[in-house]
Amino acid sequence: MAIDESSVIWFDGALVPWREARVHVLTHALHYGTGVLEGTRVFETADGPAVFRLDEHLARLERSARMLRIELPYKQQDLAAATVELVAANGHRSCYLRHLAFLGYGSMGLDMRHSPTSVSIASWDWPAYLAAERGLRLMTSSWRRTDPNSVPPAAKATGPYLNSALARREASDAGFDEALLLAPDGSVSECSSENVFAVRDGVLRTPPGSAGALEGITQDTLLTLARDLGVEVRVENLLRSDLYAADEVFVSGTAAGVVPVASLDNRELPSAEGELTKRLAQAYRAATSGADARYRHWLTPVRSA
């Protein structure tokens, strides 16, 4: 992934040159994973660039921080204004955004109380996080999501991403595109950084947060779009065999978008991109581009700065 390091990053209240957005080696989050993050997208629309579901992303950042007892020094509206300011300053027509709040350098040790919170927002071009022309090849990882009483699955925190990184590396080393992780009880959880959906007999199904899956904003978007298309949706536990037997499987995420799955554990699916997957991908593109007026309330125009 090539990043334009001539751009700027919003860091603790100011726009700074990319190479000057630095932290101390004894930063608490670097040693103990005490941070929360959001991945957000800016899409090109007929009226200029717009951030998709910015309010929902920042609300989740705030909830995640509260669950981890990380005090945010900025209000949601301040971070929204900073996000728009950053995108405008970098001149993006479309891009990926990374919001990050983390405990910085204050004291060493597990005690979180003496480390200040830093907040950053970065933007870069990230056109295709998962690229698979004929659909993704998934494998079930030997790594599983942790027990929900170990780390709150509803918090999008930095530390638990080690689990995802190990699963993704395992899948890549084995020649697959992405990893599917199971919950501690063996039910389907999610992929390393995407929610997973299964379609069978016209019904759209996706695992709940209780399976260790992050309740994704793109996931919520697709469930809303599906209901508006008259599709029956169910958020319920799935077994791996439910995916093997599905008519269609796809994954979704802010970075990935909507990506069809061609196979799981070397079992080919009936269609690499089924009809419902295509309809939802089209509806998602229409919503993010502003082409469908029903969903324009999800867009925050950058020109409003």
TrEMBL record:
<dbReference type="GO" id="GO:0009098">
    <property type="term" value="P:L-leucine biosynthetic process"/>
</dbReference>
<dbReference type="InterPro" id="IPR050571">
    <property type="entry name" value="Class-IV_PLP-Dep_Aminotrnsfr"/>
</dbReference>
<comment type="pathway">
    <text>Amino-acid biosynthesis; L-leucine biosynthesis; L-leucine from 3-methyl-2-oxobutanoate: step 4/4.</text>
</comment>
<keyword id="KW-0808">Transferase</keyword>
<dbReference type="Pfam" id="PF01063">
    <property type="entry name" value="Aminotran_4"/>
</dbReference>
<keyword id="KW-0028">Amino-acid biosynthesis</keyword>
<dbReference type="InterPro" id="IPR001544">
    <property type="entry name" value="Aminotrans_IV"/>
</dbReference>
<keyword id="KW-0663">Pyridoxal phosphate</keyword>
<dbReference type="GO" id="GO:0052655">
    <property type="term" value="F:L-valine-2-oxoglutarate transaminase activity"/>
</dbReference>
<keyword id="KW-0032">Aminotransferase</keyword>
<comment type="similarity">
    <text>Belongs to the class-IV pyridoxal-phosphate-dependent aminotransferase family.</text>
</comment>
<dbReference type="GO" id="GO:0052656">
    <property type="term" value="F:L-isoleucine-2-oxoglutarate transaminase activity"/>
</dbReference>
<comment type="pathway">
    <text>Amino-acid biosynthesis; L-isoleucine biosynthesis; L-isoleucine from 2-oxobutanoate: step 4/4.</text>
</comment>
<protein>
    <recommendedName>
        <fullName>Branched-chain-amino-acid aminotransferase</fullName>
        <ecNumber>2.6.1.42</ecNumber>
    </recommendedName>
</protein>
<dbReference type="GO" id="GO:0052654">
    <property type="term" value="F:L-leucine-2-oxoglutarate transaminase activity"/>
</dbReference>
<dbReference type="InterPro" id="IPR005785">
    <property type="entry name" value="B_amino_transI"/>
</dbReference>
<dbReference type="InterPro" id="IPR043132">
    <property type="entry name" value="BCAT-like_C"/>
</dbReference>
<dbReference type="InterPro" id="IPR036038">
    <property type="entry name" value="Aminotransferase-like"/>
</dbReference>
<keyword id="KW-0100">Branched-chain amino acid biosynthesis</keyword>
<comment type="function">
    <text>Acts on leucine, isoleucine and valine.</text>
</comment>
<dbReference type="GO" id="GO:0009097">
    <property type="term" value="P:isoleucine biosynthetic process"/>
</dbReference>
<dbReference type="InterPro" id="IPR043131">
    <property type="entry name" value="BCAT-like_N"/>
</dbReference>
<dbReference type="GO" id="GO:0009099">
    <property type="term" value="P:L-valine biosynthetic process"/>
</dbReference>
